[in-house]
Amino acid sequence: MEKALQIMVLDDEPIVGKRLKPALEKSGLEVEVFENPAQALRRLGEKEFDVVVTDVRMEDVNGIQVLERVKERSDRTKVIIITGYATIEMAREALVKGAFDFLAKPFKPNDLRAMVERAARSLEQPEPAS
User: Fold this and answer.
1) Distance between CA atoms of 27 and 24, rounded to whole angstroms?
2) What is the pTM of this model?
């Protein structure tokens, strides 16, 4: 039996985690939800996740900082940025810094589930030699 993918969802709006957790778990994923960026960053120090889904705009820490922290710890972890304030500049910065993809709110849980599944498939591909 294959190990379930480990997913972190970080959004300071409680409703986002409440909606996304059951949608992702329905696909057989193990999901940890955080509303507090400091707690999420602590957890990232303890555990390597396969996919991290993070909001961009939060108090104290933003999603780009979360992305940078994830990438410092693990090159293989895929980071999906979600935001209600999508701009081309923000998307470009996120992608340049190594985000897997970018999803603008509002979105349907199935949209995110499909994106997470794409990220999971890319984890199975060997990284190209640089």
Assistant:
1) 5
2) 0.91
